[in-house]
Amino acid sequence: MLKYEIKDFPLDQDNLMLAETLFHNANGYLGVRSNFEEGYPKNMDSIRGEYINGFYDFASSPQAEKLCGLVEEKQTMLNVADTQGIEIYIEGERFSMFEGEVLGRTRTLDMEAGTTLREVLWRSPKGKTVRIEIKRMASFALLPFFLIEYKVTPVDFSGEVKICSTHIGKVMNYFNPNDPRVAGESFEHLLVESIEVNNDVSYISSKTSKSDLCVCSAVKNVFSKEGKTEIVKEDGAVKEEYIGFISQGEVLTLYKYTILCDSVRYPNLSNETKENMEQALSTDINEWYEKQKAYLASFWENCAIDIVGKKDLNEAVHYNLYQLIQSVGKDPFSNITAKGLSGEGYEGHYFWDTEMYMQPFFTLTARDIAKNLIRYRYTILEYAKENARILGHKKGAAYPWRTIMGKECSGFFPAGSAQYHISGDVAYSIVSYYLATKDLELLRGCGAQVLIETARLWMDLGNYYRGKFHINEVTGPDEYTCLVNNNYYTNVLAQYNLRWAVKSFHLLKEAGLISDLIEKTQITEEELKEFEEAADKMYLPYDEETGINPQDDSFLQKKVWDLTTIPEDKKPLLLHYHPMYIYRYQVCKQADTVLAHFILEDAQDLETIRKSFAYYEKVTTHDSSLSTCIYSIVASRLGLEDKAYEYFGESAKLDLFNTHKNTKDGIHTANMGGTYMAIVYGFGGLRIKEEGLFLNPHLPKQWEGYQFRILFEDAKINVKRTQAECRITLLEGSKKNIHVYGKEYCLEKELVIY
Fold first, then answer.
1. Residue 117, number of CB atoms within 10 A of its CB
2. Any residues with CB less than 8 A from the CB of 299 and at least 6 apart, and which?
3. How many CB atoms lie within 10 A of CB 128?
4. Which residues, in sequence order, are CB contacts of 666 under 8 Å at separation 6+?
5. CA angle 88, 89, 95 (to 5 degrees)
6. Among 211, 286, 416, 486, which one is most buried in terms of CB atoms within 10 A?
7. Rounded CA gap, 214 and 331, in Å?
8. pLDDT at 176
């Protein structure tokens, strides 16, 4: 069983806020933090939130200096309603985890059922004992639907039970002015416009203050036993009160149905909210649970992964993959936020994290989702073009560093807009998807257009100097080194982007599918030749003395920061040292050149990669959660098995063990995708290139074995590695020529290598 469980969980504020994240419910459209329905004491903080992926308002982002093109307005994901509230009174005594005596408490996440469960055995101050079981589900079958099943069982008495269920539309976002990862100001972004009660269903319609978007939340309370009920409208809220009598051992159940709909997807918002509620109510609860199980059974079937011999790591990996399916948008209107739908960290923005750390998982296991991620970038292509013009470019598309609806949200441009590599990351993800699927229709419909517009950006951004194509004043993935010339990662990715813009054109031309692309882009053969020339003459920094690819032109000129001298209370560096101080040192927040050596390993020989890895390892703090997984993959590629395993463990356990001390703000979705890559691309040695599928599975000495499953072209393939053998099985699809341990094989059914 795929379960994560905590018994007798701590009741201090830090652990409760952590559990709000770890046990949240989401389905890619909506997310609900795991707050106590009854709330906490007034002196305790909580991030109480319900979110819709891609639903936002505009917020002020003032700049001290009013310079041209600086971002002064951003988008922010909103807390859209509070439909979690349920208060229980046992013979007049209010249930609270902080009063009376808690005799037992357990929290469980069931990753096969797609539900969370909170179980409490509670004795009231006057000595009455009650069992409370609370099951929650964010439906994968009906995305706007969230369910709370709340059971109350008197253990040693019979008597009156009162239940107060609330539906609150007047809500605000969490803010912390001292943390750059969450909102720094408090503002009422959502304004209640109407409250309606129809057939005992409450509807609250609200509108954003600036973005002109609307949301409608609907709640229906269904009780398993008749009692006295009353529904009252309050200021921005609706409260329903139930009073009934239950006998000792009898179970009273409240089924609380929530529907959340937004105007981004539902143009006829009021009617479509009602239709979704009718659909939720007309289907038996058990059928909804079965639909949830069926969806997840298909998910786990396609991405089956298993580590033998390390139960804790196996649990952590499955938890991470489950969070990815909970977090990812299921339509082209949304993407994957840096914190999923588990919290408000990074304000619900989408970053390069998606393309480089999370989309690879979906490309290999859930293609419809991967296609939606690409289509989302296509839907904001016009904004990317507009962003390029703001940055001074006459042509091309510059994707925003952080965004929801397409406009740049990054106010600190040295570590934001200057990260031009995000446009190359988007292009890279399209190529990776094509190589894995050979889906020409996606190239024709949107992919090739994005490749051409991003290629045009590099042509306008770069310039020729002494016969080489240079790209100046950019920031690479390492945010401790900003505004540099010829960042290796950026240049090699731009080279790849330029070449694939040309290749995609010729692929479509050969297939007779080129007319749409020419019409949309007005691309010419002359421009394609310019792309090819720039790619061929791209300057890739290389230092003869060290035998490495310098991160940029000036990196090796800087002082080296001895990382062993940094006190623990001064980490992460970005919170304790001025950016200018950090920029003057050879110190990396995360993998940069090392990441380039993973994704584009054929750009350099193995010895250069080996020397680069050794060099950058000494100056990298891994202050970013995106870092250790990449170091694990490249260490695997170099045969550094102990290092690969150490870095993998740090990555896999980041959220369950709260190693970065900020999981309360939300999960680290990119790291979760990186954990998957560290197994499949790292230990499994998977690479998908133009020449086909390559595998180099090796087994960490700490494990007895492992296996994973991938989709490649029309095939589903299982890779299993034990101490005795490597077994590759074709589960579905046509036979494939694949490369294993450097040799080519024809995989027709099963291949066993001893």
1. 18
2. 325, 365, 366
3. 18
4. 21, 337, 338, 339, 340, 342, 343, 344, 345, 346
5. 65
6. 486
7. 18
8. 72
State pLDDT tens for residues 497-527: 999 999 999 999 999 999 999 999 999 999 9
Please provide residue 108's backbone torsions phi and psi, each rounded to the nearest 5 degrees. Answer: -135, 135
Task: Please name the helix (run of DSSP H) or strand (run of DSSP E) that holds residue 32, with its range, or none.
Answer: strand 30-32
Question: Is 561 marked within a binding site?
Answer: no
Locus of tokens 């690409």: 374
What is the side-by-side order of every strand in the sheet holding 743-747? 687-689, 692-695, 736-740, 743-747
Residue 98 and residue 664: Cα distance in Å, rounded?
A: 20
Give percent helix, percent strand, percent coil of the chain, each to the nearest 5. Answer: 35, 25, 40
> Of 83, 49, 95, whose CA–CA distance to 221 is shortest?
83
CATH top-level class for 3-269? mainly beta
Annotated catalytic sites, by residue?
479
Strand order across the beta sheet in which 237-246 lies: 93-94, 86-90, 159-168, 237-246, 228-234
| Residue 394 in marked binding region | no
- Bond into 572 cis (ω within 30): yes
Answer yes or no: are the C-beta atoms of 153 and 230 closer than 8 Å: no
pLDDT at 1: 76
For residue 185, the model assigns a pLDDT of: 60
Rg (CA), the chain: 27
Joined together, the tokens standing for residue 744 give 């080519």
Per-residue pLDDT tens over the stretch 343-390 = 999 999 999 999 999 999 999 999 999 999 999 999 999 999 999 999
Beta-sheet pairing, 145-154 with 252-262:
antiparallel
In 124-213, DSSP assigns E strands to 129-138, 145-154, 159-168, 190-198, 201-208
Backbone phi, then psi, for 580, in 5-degree steps? -65, -35
Minimal CA–CA distance to 80: which of 266, 213, 238?
Answer: 213
Burial class (CB in 10 A: 0-12, 13-18, 19+), 62: exposed
**pLDDT for position 184:** 55
Helices (H) and strands (E) in the chain, counts: 20, 32
Residue 604 annotated as lining a ligand binding site: no
Q: Please tell me the distance from the alpha carbon of residue 738 to that of residue 575, in angstroms, as a whole number.
A: 47
Task: Check whether 665 is labelled as a binding-site residue.
Answer: no
Length of the chain: 754
Q: Is the CA virtual torsion 617, 315, 328, 175 positive or negative?
A: negative
Identify the pLDDT of residue 116: 98
The answer to whether 358 and 352 have CB atoms below 8 angstroms apart is no
**What pTM was computed for the model?**
0.96
Over the chain (754 residues), the average pLDDT of each successive run of 10 is 91 95 98 98 94 97 93 97 98 97 98 98 98 98 98 97 98 77 71 97 98 98 97 97 98 98 98 98 98 98 96 94 98 97 96 98 98 98 98 98 98 97 98 98 98 98 98 98 98 99 98 98 98 98 98 98 94 96 98 98 98 98 96 98 94 88 94 97 98 97 97 98 97 98 98 96
The token duo for 431 is: 């190529």
